[in-house]
Structures are given as structure tokens and as C-alpha cells.
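Re: [ENG-882] Designed sequences occasionally contain unexpected residues at chain ends

Forwarding the minimal case from QA. C-alpha cells:
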């Protein structure tokens, strides 16, 4: 199409009336990450208000292990050496203490109902807060007979192997 043809094609076109528009002065402001600020604030508050004693904080670097009173020491040795196959597991990465406590309780109840004997709980290596908490929570559970640090191939210092009562 030539310019003459174009002019003839649009000869009877009338311009639109100008709509009232607000003129923006500069770029729009950057979005404020409100949720991120709330998350960071909650994480800080939890880390400061948590019931970790100085003793618990020092324990986090050590390998955790536990054997219920009345159980043979051989049971813990067998658990460390992989005598029982790991039948299920749960990963607590990214959870708060409260979330982790609820997940662990639910997981152990589910495992007990299914008759599982050996399970893995991955708490992560990070700050060791969940590791210390598991050291307190697990001995309180009647179904837990023993636990120990997982071998390197199963998570090492970031996971626990837990031996549960057999379903009878």
C-alpha cells in the first residue's frame, strides 16, 4: 500500500476524544515484601524465645543416641549397624519447632499403626535446634525403644534412626 492509498483509506477517520488520564510522575514504587518480613520476624522471635538451654545448645554438635531403660545395649549396637531396614522416614527441613513436633507425633503414630520397626527422621544439620528437640521429644514417646545418629549414607549427623516397639 502506498502513502496515497493509505491517506484515502483513512480520510474519513476522526480522532478519538482525549480521555481524562492521570499522569504518572516517575516509576511505580517497588513492592514491599510484607510476608517475608513477617516470616523473618517470626523466625527471629522463635529463635530468641525458644526453650533451648545453654546445655541443649552445646549438645547439638554431638551424636544423639538413646536406649530405653530395660533394653539390652546390644539393641542400640544393632540399630547403629543397620540390623533393621529403614521402613519409612520423615523430613523436617524448613519446619518450625511446633510444626516439627506435630509432624513427628503424627508420623510415629502412623508408623506404630502400620507395625513399622525402624524409621528415619531427618532433622537437618543447620543450627541443630530440631536435633536438640528430638533428643527431648523421642524419649517421652512410649513407642520409641532406641534411636541413634544415622550412618552417613542415610543422612549422617542430619538424621536419626529410630527403633519402635513391635505391633502386638
Amino acid at each position: 500500500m502506498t502513502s496515497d492509498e493509505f491517506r484515502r483509506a483513512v480520510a474519513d477517520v476522526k480522532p478519538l476524544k482525549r480521555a481524562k488520564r492521570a499522569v504518572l510522575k516517575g516509576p511505580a514504587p517497588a513492592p514491599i515484601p510484607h510476608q517475608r518480613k513477617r516470616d523473618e520476624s517470626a523466625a527471629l522471635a522463635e529463635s530468641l524465645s525458644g526453650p533451648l538451654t545453654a546445655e541443649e545448645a552445646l549438645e547439638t554438635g554431638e551424636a544423639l543416641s538413646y536406649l530405653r531403660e530395660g533394653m539390652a545395649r546390644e539393641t542400640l549396637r544393632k540399630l547403629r549397624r543397620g540390623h533393621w531396614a529403614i521402613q519409612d522416614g520423615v523430613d523436617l527441613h524448613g519446619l518450625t519447632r511446633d510444626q516439627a513436633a506435630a509432624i513427628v507425633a503424627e508420623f510415629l503414630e502412623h508408623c506404630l499403626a502400620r507395625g513399622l520397626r525402624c524409621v528415619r527422621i531427618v532433622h537437618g544439620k543447620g543450627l541443630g535446634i530440631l536435633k536438640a528437640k528430638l533428643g527431648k521429644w523421642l524419649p517421652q514417646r512410649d513407642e520409641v525403644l532406641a534411636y541413634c545418629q544415622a550412618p552417613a549414607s542415610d543422612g549422617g549427623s542430619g538424621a536419626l534412626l529410630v527403633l519402635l516397639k513391635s505391633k502386638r
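QA comment: On inspection the terminal residues look reasonable. Residues 52-61 have pLDDT under 50 and may be disordered. Proposing we downgrade this to a documentation issue.
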